Amino acid sequence: MDSSTNVCITQKGMDEVKSRAYKVGMKKRSVLICLEKPQTVESIVSKSVLPAPEVIAEIQALAQDGFVALIKAGSPVPAAIAAVSNGASLLSDGIVLPEAKFLMVDFWVDCFGMESESFTDAIQACESVKDINACLNRIVESVKAQCPQQMPSLQNLIKEINATA
Q1: Proportion of the chain above pLDDT 70, given as a percent
Q2: What are phi and psi of 34, to 5 degrees?
Q3: pLDDT, tens digit, 9 for 90 and up, residues 102-149
Q4: Signed CA dihedral, 21, 24, 30, 32: sign only
Q5: What 3-state class would DSSP assign to 71?
Q6: Cα dihedral across residues 41, 44, 9, 75: positive or negative
Q7: How far apart, in Å, do the first and last CA atoms of the chain sit?
Q8: Is 91 helix (H, G, I), strand (E, B) or coil?
Q9: Residues 6+ apart with CB under 8 A from 34
Q10: pTM listed for this prediction
Q11: How wide is the angle at C-alpha 40 spanned by C-alphas 150 and 57, nearest 5°?
């Protein structure tokens, strides 16, 4: 792993830091805790008391499990990932909720087909912008982990939904 690679915490990683939702081990958790803002691998290694190879192995394991995203040096951090990492709401308060639900379900089914039922049910159950933002953050994490090539489409979807405000 290149030491200049940026490591960004994902929503799943934030959930672990806030509530120990996934009960990761102490070494992984120590890496997550120092990722309030995206940092390079080199920076994380320099702050850790663990040996460098061990820290790098933990970062790789966290990335594989979807707790962090690895962004090559010089590449911009995708806006959706940066927003999630900063705990920001991706959708504006004044969006048209039924249209947002429709667009999100349509996107999700296009990406994941028959495996999309749990998310489509969750999206349909949303009753507020706060609820739909929470679903969208989970969608961002899943797309990033399972089909990252769809991130530009997802960013366009977010713009389209925000245009309904």
Answers
A1: 87
A2: -85, 5
A3: 988 888 888 777 666 777 888 888 888 888 888 888 777 777 777 777
A4: negative
A5: strand
A6: negative
A7: 42
A8: coil
A9: 44, 47, 48
A10: 0.51
A11: 85
